[in-house]
Task: inverse folding
């Protein structure tokens, strides 16, 4: 009997989490640090408030992450020109290097997948994954809004 798709998805999720955990260990990053590096642009400068909003964090949690990343040398902060009480954040050279390492590791993993599949298989896989994500998003939204259709 064929495995259920949801079981395959959970197995894939575990493998992806394992890969992500390996990246975190290799670069000595926390999951929050990894998330910041993934979501901040290399040359981007944003306020601490925008930082928290983008990462869907409370201001206090965002502040703790910012302080840790400043201490570890991944972020730099400068007072905003228009209001010196406001802090602007950007990635440091170390942050940019870590971001590049993450991208390189993900590209390498992607390449291993691409090499094993034909163009048609890749196209079908991509479309199927989009459909699955859309289906799961719709189900998630139904639960949030209480719609049971």
Result:
């Amino acid at each position: 009997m064929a495995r259920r798709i949801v079981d395959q998805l959970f197995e894939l999720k575990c493998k992806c989490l394992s890969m992500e955990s390996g990246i975190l260990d290799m670069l000595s990053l926390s999951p929050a640090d990894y998330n910041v590096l993934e979501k901040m642009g290399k040359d981007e400068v944003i306020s601490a408030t925008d930082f928290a909003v983008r990462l869907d964090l409370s201001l206090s949690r965002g502040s703790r992450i910012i302080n840790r990343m400043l201490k570890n040398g991944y972020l730099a902060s400068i007072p905003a020109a228009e209001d010196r009480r406001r802090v602007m954040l950007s990635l440091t050279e170390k942050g940019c290097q870590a971001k590049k390492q993450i991208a390189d590791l993900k590209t390498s993993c992607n390449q291993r997948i691409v090499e094993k599949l034909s163009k048609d298989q890749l196209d079908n896989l991509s479309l199927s994954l989009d459909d699955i994500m859309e289906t799961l998003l719709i189900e998630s939204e139904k639960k949030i809004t209480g719609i049971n259709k």
Q: What stands out?
A: The two ends are 30 Å apart (CA to CA). The beta strands are 46-47, 75-79, 87-91. The helical segments are 5-27, 31-39, 48-54, 59-71, 93-116, 119-145.
